Amino acid sequence: MSILDTIKNRTSCRTFKPAPLSPTDKRSLEVFIRENDTGLDGERIPLVIIEKKAGEKPMKLDYGIIKGHSTYVMEHRKPP
C-alpha cells in the first residue's frame, strides 16, 4: 500500500461510532478504571463514565466540542 493510500484510509483517534457503549464493554471499562485508579505518584485518580442520552447537546469541553460520541470517561473530583 502506498503512503497516499495509507493516509486516505487512516482513521483518526477522534473518530467515534455513533453508538452507545454496550453493557458488557461498560462493565469491562468500569472494572479497568477501578483496578487502575492510581497515578504516577500514588495519587488516586477518580474517573467516572458519563453517558449522554440521545438528543442531548454535545458536551463543551476545554478543547472544544466532541461530536459523534455518547460516552465519556472523565475525572470526577468533589469541589473543595
Total strands: the figure is 4
Strand content: 15-25%
Distance between the termini: 54 Å
* Shape by Cα distribution: extended
- The computed structural class is alpha+beta
Radius of gyration: 16 Å
Describe the strand arrangement of the main beta sheet, using strand numbers: 1-4
Largest sheet: 2 strands, antiparallel
Task: Give, in order, the helices and strands.
Answer: HHEEEE
In round numbers, the mean pLDDT is: 79
Uncertain runs are none
Instruction: Compute the number of helices.
Output: 2
Fraction of helical residues: 25-40%
Describe the protein in words.
- With 80 residues, this protein is of the alpha+beta class.
- Helix content is 25%, strand content 18%.
- It has a two-stranded antiparallel ribbon. A two-stranded antiparallel sheet has the order 2-3.
- Strand 2 and strand 3 (64-65) form a beta hairpin.
- The longest helix is centred in the middle third of the chain and has 13 residues, at 23-35.
- The mean pLDDT is 79.
What descriptive keywords fit this protein?
alpha+beta, 80 residues, 4 strands, 2 helices, two-stranded antiparallel ribbon, single chain
Mind sketching the topology for me?
Blueprint: H1 3-9, H2 23-35, E1 47-51, E2 60-61, E3 64-65, E4 71-75
Antiparallel strand pairs: 1-4, 2-3
In brief:
This protein is of the alpha+beta class and 80 residues long. Helix content is 25%, strand content 18%. β2 and β3 (64-65) form a beta hairpin.
